[in-house]
Amino acid sequence: MTKEHRKQIKDDATYDALRRQGASKVKAARIANSPGASRRGGLASNLNERSRIELLEQAKKIGISGRHSMRKNELINAIRNH
Question: Which segments show compositional bias classed as Basic and acidic residues (predicted)?
Answer without folding.
Answer: 1-19
